[in-house]
Amino acid sequence: MNDGTPAIRTRHLTVSYGLRPALLDVNLDIPQGSLVGILGPNGAGKSTLIKALMGFVKKDVGRVEIMGEPAEKAKGRMAYVPQRSSVDWDFPITVEEVTLMGRYGQIPWYRNPGKKDRDAALKALRAVRMEDFGQRQIGALSGGQQQRVFMARALCQGADILLLDEPFAGVDAVTEKAILSVLKEAREQGLTLVVVHHDLATAASYFDLIALIKQGLVAFGSPEDVLQKELLSEVYEGQMQSFASLPSINSKP
């Protein structure tokens, strides 16, 4: 039940790589059941934010809360879909085996996946329209199909929150539409989804809320409030000419 507690809350979240700051003093409340886009230029800290939420990178200062609990105590409540470029697609593993990885946190080390686990994997593959590919090698799939399999693995985990790093990168328009449909269906089922995204032209129609970042959090709110030319000019310095072609940047289609 949604009691108003944010799905994700950060306070003063700061992360550095050596002497180079990646995130500075990020304070963010992401509501439960929302589909949120993380936007910003290259090097703005978008992927770092996702990794900091997951605990994959060490924060300098600040705190992260998941459903009102410290992130360290909320293991299993978040699932992560990495960028495709970070995955070894030559590893010999099937679609079903990849999806079953989402169950590993719930299976004792001494037991193999059972019927309940395989049923959960099949349900997740159905959700992403990949149930007919269970025995296919992951490396034999198209980029969009691979992305959907990793989404199935995240769904199979049974988490409340999905964090996705550039799920639309490098896929065709048909696949992008299919992935968006899966995300919106997951939101309708009560999941919270946080998506690193790069395309300003589609952001207004894809997301309920948008966090615009450039090391710090520049703006957070509805697409109509965040996708303002003044804010975009501040964040995307020298790139304003590319905004002129955006369709109705301050309104949803």
UniProtKB/TrEMBL annotation:
SUPFAM superfamilies: P-loop containing nucleoside triphosphate hydrolases (SSF52540). The keyword Nucleotide-binding applies. GO terms for molecular function: ATP binding; ATP hydrolysis activity. Pfam families: ABC_tran. The keyword ATP-binding applies. It comes from the Bacteria. Residues 8-240 form the ABC transporter domain. PROSITE patterns: ABC_TRANSPORTER_1, ABC_TRANSPORTER_2. Keywords: ATP-binding, Nucleotide-binding, Transport. Belongs to the ABC transporter superfamily. This is Metal ABC transporter ATP-binding protein. It comes from Desulfobotulus mexicanus.
